[in-house]
Amino acid sequence: MTTSIRAHITGTGAYLPEKIVTNDDLAKTVETSDEWIRQRTGIRARHVAGKGETTSEMATRAALEALEQAGVSGAEIDAIVLATTTPDQTFPATAVTVQDRIGMGDRGFAFDVQAVCSGFVYALAVADNFIRTGQVRRALVIGADHFTSLLDWNDRTTCVLFGDGAAAVVLEARENSDGGILSTHLHSQGAYRDLLYVDGGPSSTGTTGHVRMNGQEVFRHAVTRMSEAVNEALQKNGLEAADIDWLIPHQANRRIIESTAKKLKMPIEKVILTVEKHGNTSAASIPLALYEAVRDGRIQKNDLLLMEAMGGGLTWGSALVRW
Ligand code: UT7
């Protein structure tokens, strides 16, 4: 008889850089204002990585906390799937640095996933599938981005939106379970890759490049695609929006999140919001929000969580989790 294996989140960890940059700080260097940024995005401040706070450093700190909370040692982890758009180096993958630093030695494997702001949902889906097929028993899924290193600090249309950070979850296999990750849903549409991109890279310019975005168009797609991703997850599992205890959206813009919640007729009190304090931390935004709501006790055993994201690519997706 085949037994169903489900991946359960058994630990969470996070790391935010020490330095906090407020809207007023940014208004000293570009033509913007606290009022404009708050009204259009809901952002008040963001953390910006300083010297030594590389993507691997932030990811390692988040991973170590998640391991501690799960009561699992690095030597017991079979795989690391790390979502990032801002690796320490073009190669090797940032995940292998974390593998070394958490004491996995030569056990298992570690690699990066690149789906920009949808990265965490993508990484979670990849690790979930390894666990469901029985190839991996314990995995670390990390979202880590040093996104401010991609910013053109003279471009007010992008530099006010992003921040840095990392967060991690430990996934563990459980047999005959009807909880844990219930389903994941991934999508992309490359025809829209020019709406949000970095104007550099190894095989094109040989430079790192800066973020460029058609904000209004991305906004429009974000509301549509994130609602679709939510509905797909609900339909697949025979659930309704009212069954969701917590919506954990990618934190790009409070207005996008509010529009998505409105479409789902979901009260904003059921939405985990961190965009005000973190800005858009790309792959780190969903696990950072999850971490905060787990730590402050909002998320309780058996709660139904729906994570959803949209980012450059365009990429989008969702993950439904019974806590
Ligand atoms: O994580 C991946 C997904 N990314 C997103 O989801 C981001 C999606 N897009 C957005 O969040 C919004 O489109 C933005 C926050 C980027 C922009 O908000 P908006 O309401 O779409 O503003 P807009 O681009 O239509 O700009 C309105 C005005 C423009 O001036 P004019 O042309 O009306 O004179 C902009 O030049 O606001 C101006 N503006 C600013 N003013 C002060 C743009 N950026 C700023 C700024 N400060 N930082």
Descriptive report:
With 323 residues, the chain is of the alpha/beta class. The chain folds into two domains: 5-175, Peroxisomal Thiolase, Chain A, domain 1 (3-Layer(aba) Sandwich), CATH 3.40.47; 180-322, Peroxisomal Thiolase, Chain A, domain 1, CATH 3.40.47.10. The protein has ten helices and 13 strands. The protein has helices at 23-27, 34-41, 55-70, 94-101, 119-132, 156-159, 215-236, 254-263, 275-278, 285-295; strands at residues 5-15, 20-22, 45-47, 79-83, 109-113, 138-146, 164-175, 180-188, 196-198, 211-213, 246-249, 304-311, 315-322. It has a five-stranded mixed β-sheet with strand order 1-7-6-4-5, with helices on both faces. β4 (79-83), α4 (94-101) and β5 form a beta-alpha-beta unit. The longest helix has 22 residues, at 215-236. Bound molecules: oxa(dethia)-CoA. Residues 32, 36-37, 40-41, 117, 156-157, 160, 215-216, 218-219, 222, 252-253, 256, 280, 311 line the site of oxa(dethia)-CoA.
CATH class category of the largest domain: Alpha Beta
Q: Domains counted in the coordinates: how many?
A: 2
Structural class: alpha/beta
| N- to C-terminal distance | 26 Å
Features:
323 residues; alpha/beta; Peroxisomal Thiolase, Chain A, domain 1; five-stranded mixed beta sheet; four-stranded mixed beta sheet; 10 helices; globular; binds oxa(dethia)-CoA
Compose a concise summary of this entry.
The chain is of the alpha/beta class and 323 residues long. The protein has 10 helices and 13 strands.
Fold topology:
Layout: E1 5-15, E2 20-22, H1 23-27, H2 34-41, E3 45-47, H3 55-70, E4 79-83, H4 94-101, E5 109-113, H5 119-132, E6 138-146, H6 156-159, E7 164-175, E8 180-188, E9 196-198, E10 211-213, H7 215-236, E11 246-249, H8 254-263, H9 275-278, H10 285-295, E12 304-311, E13 315-322
Parallel strand pairs: 4-5, 4-6, 11-12
Antiparallel strand pairs: 1-7, 2-3, 6-7, 8-13, 9-10, 12-13
The structure holds oxa(dethia)-CoA.
